[in-house]
Structure formats: C-alpha cells, structure tokens
Amino acid sequence: MLFSRSWVPAAAGYAALFIGILDIVRGVIPHFRRSRVILIADVFPGTATTLAAAASLLVGVLLVMLAHALRRRKVRAWRAVVLLLPLGAVVEALRWRHSATAAISLGLFVVLLLNRGEFHALPDPRSRWRALWNFLALGVLDLGIGWVVVSVHPATIVGDPSAGERVQHVLLGLVGMQGPVEYSLDGTADLVYYSLAGLGALTAITTLYLALRPERPAAALSGEDERRVRALLDRHGRHDSLGYFALRRDKSVVFSPSGKAVIAYRVVSGVMLASGDPIGDPEAWPGAIRRFMEEVRRHAWVPAVIGCSETGGEIWTREAGLCALEIGDEAIVDVAGFSLEGRAMRNVRQMVNRTERAGYTCMVRRVGDLSEQEREQIRAAAGSWRGTESERGFSMALGRFGDPADDACVVVTAHKPGEDGRVSPGGDIRAVLHFVPWGRAGISLDLMRRDRDADPGLNELLIVKTLQAAPSLGVTRVSLNFAMFRSALARGERLGAGPVMRAWRGVLVFLSRWFQIESLYRFNAKFRPFWEPRFLVYATARDLPRIGLSALQAEAFLTVGRLSLPFRGRRRPGPGSSPSGSTPSEGPLPVSP
Q: In terms of pTM, does the model score above 0.85?
C-alpha cells in the first residue's frame, strides 16, 4: 500500500492510548463537564448530557484497553478502534467548544484506514467463543444486579413503574442512558445511573479483553509429528543434548519447507518460546527458522529461544536478526576421561565410598529392560518425592517416564531396604536418575530425585555409577546439569577480577539463597566436566521481562496465583544441598505413562 509504514501500529497504539486517557480525564473531572449538548437538552430531555459523559468515559476506557493490541498489529483491535474513533470524535464535537481531541481522533482514523495492511495479526479462534459466553453470562448477571439497583430505593422512586419499565431502565442504564424510572433525589438518580453504567463498562471491558488476549493454541505433538521428529533425531540427534526434549507432547513443532529440520515451541502469554537448537540437518535450520518467524509475524507474538547452543545462536541471530544473551553453561562429562583417581576427585571419591558403606547399591539399565512392575515402582517413588504440586519442565525435561516409545532412555536407581520396617511407594528405591538419548553415543540428564531421608552423597553415587557403566551402554558423553551464569561465578572469584564482575558475582551469590545458583555450579564442577555455553535468543531488550515471565510459566515455576521460588530439577538444584555434598533431590518431570 502506498501509505503503508511499519511504524504505524506502534504510533497508532500510543495515539489511541493518549486519546483514551484524555477521554477518561474529561469524563471524570467535574471541571471538564461543561457541555454544548445543554443546548439540545430540550430535544432530548434528561438524556443527552449524561449520555455524552458516559460515552466519553466508555470510549476512553476501551481505547486504553485496545492500545496494546493495536501496537501488536491485532486485526480485531484495528476493527474496534476504527469503529470507536468516529464515535469518540462525535461525542467530543458535541461536548467541547475548543477541543483538539475530535480532530486527533479523526486524523488517527484516516491513518488507520490508509494502513489497513499493517494490522494482520491473527486472533485466537477460541477467544471469540469465550468472549461471547462472557458477554452472555455477565449480561444475565447485569440484569439481575441492575434490577436490584433500580428497585432498592422504593422511597425515592417517583410513581409506580412497571416491571417492563424497570427492565428498560436497566438495559438503557447499562449503555449509559437514562431510562423511564425517575427518582425524587438527584443523589439516588446519580447512584443508579453510574452503577448501571459501571456494570455495562465492566461487561464490555472483560469481553473485549477475552476477544483480544494473546493467542495461545493448545500445544500438542501429534503422532505423525512425533514420528517425523524421531526420524530426524535418529539421523541428527548428536548435534544437541536437548534435542530429545522436543518430544514432549505438550509442545508444537514447525518444520522447514524441506522437512529436514524442525523447531519445537510453545506459546505462553504471547511469547513463542522455542527450546534448544533446531533438530535436523543444520543446512535446513535457516528454513525452519524462517517458518518460525513467519508464525511469529502472523500472530504478532514475541520470539524467544531458550537454551540454544553457540552454533544455534549464531544461526538464529543471522537468519532472524535476533540478539543472543549467554545465560549459563551445560556440564558435559567425557566418559573416557572420567576417573575417581587423583586429588581433584578426592571429595567425590570419599562421598561415594561413604554412601556405599551405608548399604546403598545402584542399578544402571535401559528403560526397555525394565519390567512393568519395576516401571511402576520407579514412577511411584519419583512421584512421592516430588516437592511441588505442579510438574515442572519445558526446555530441558521430557515430562514422562516409562513410555514404550522411550525404551532407549537410561534409568539409574539407588536401593536400600527401609529402616524400622518403613515401606515406601517404590519399595527399596531411594533415588532415581533418568537420562534421555543424545544421539547414538550420548545421554542427557532428565530427572534427578531422591528420598529426602536418604543419606548425603547419594546423587554423587548415582552419577559416578552412571559414568562407570556408560561404556557398556555404548555411551561416550553424558550431559549433566545446566548451571546458570556459571562463567560469571567462575570469573568473579578469580584473582584480578574487576569490580563490576565481583559485584555481579556477589549478586548471584546473594540470589543463591533462594535459587541455589552457586551450589549447582559447585556440584557440577565436582565431576570435572567441560562447559558448553547456552544462550537466550530474543528480539529486543524491552521484551526480556516478558520473555522471562513466559519462561517461568512454561517451566511451571510461576503458576496462576502462586510463585515457586527455589529453582529445582534437572538443570537446577532442589532442596537437600548441604556442605557435605548432598545435592538436588528433585526433578521437574512428571513420571506418568
């Protein structure tokens, strides 16, 4: 279009916000209530003045509500604003002798019409029905409450209005008009009027919110998509230790045009969150990224990628024009180079020996080698040790255990008979580690849980036994925990670190009281891993707070009405850390068939 400009949606959104605030201020401040419509009060007795005030207030509120959706290019917001602006201009032209609001409204109206093509973001098809049901339900409630409001002051009602007149008064009052019921006291009349108008405004605002809320389709991995993703993992799974987590069945996927690469994602609060690197042939990653960004633009979502590798981050930033921020490091142990010998491993060696002397034994097996009874015991044990009501995990968690499709996974269990005849749901199982495949010669930690009453050092024992048994499973590398801001912690404690780095490290150590950032880094470092940096990819810095909240929601650290502070789980520590070396006892994953 000739007049099309990419900056128009943002400018139009702020203009709508400005006009809406002006309308609200002029509707509620008495000084601004002088009105031209007094001249035509004889034509519309008792109606024009209050209608103008109510209409101005309502239009202002609606424009403020629509401003954000307009900036996000929502087509429904465009339609609503195009209808509201002329109405607001007419109301302002009637009410004010010297006001620029009407002219600004008409100017914005023209700009929006000329730039219709800039507002293309698709709404949520389900929100239309939710908005309709909200409107009907609140409409019925408004009628009931409105009837009470109209009739609750019988002493001041003039005459004896019929039931039909009362209903008519309620219906007109909900849209800001005076009805046939009259009151002898102006105060009562004003109270009834503004109460009904408020109910109507509430219904309109909540219905509008549901109609324009960010689209959040139900994420689901279909059987056909899962089959295609598994085929790509079989051929290219070695590229990313987080690749197998794309098989979570509460994720959606977008494939490249060639079908040789795929990106797993979930939409949370208007943010399209991808996890890890694209899966498949690296040469096809750009095609998958372009498809991902097309979906972002179609729905006006905010793009973000959690936990991608350095290679993946470079391709994302090059192909999509995004930015990257290092958020931590993944601890990866080379099985061939691991040994308990030497001074550096003294602490781990002592803890493992102490735990074994306490009577613990370990078993390392493929999930496919477990009997159904053993699977049920592990599910029951891990479920009983979960310390939170909601399951956690998105980017680095599989979300299930014992599924027949996951027989290549590795499970490590620690066993010890209960003392004093105590019987646990998992029998003699005292701790569980669960690993998912990482290509053909690697495994990646998914679940880490243990009995809270178990002895310290049990997690160290499990990891050591996994690394020792890895060659017999054909495993050459093991991905352990993810340590947030690991490089900052390491550099900040070195000799010669500058004041800024030391200050940043001090902040992280302080936050570790709740998030245990430092303790997880220390635990990972015990096994002498090499560190692979992981990145957050985002569009603009102003999106980071929104992305952060969406990531917390996706990982289930932030739920409706409840915030869970300690970062626990597969890549984060849980309760149970102690100076003696005990580490996380919880993982974020449900253990369900």
A: no
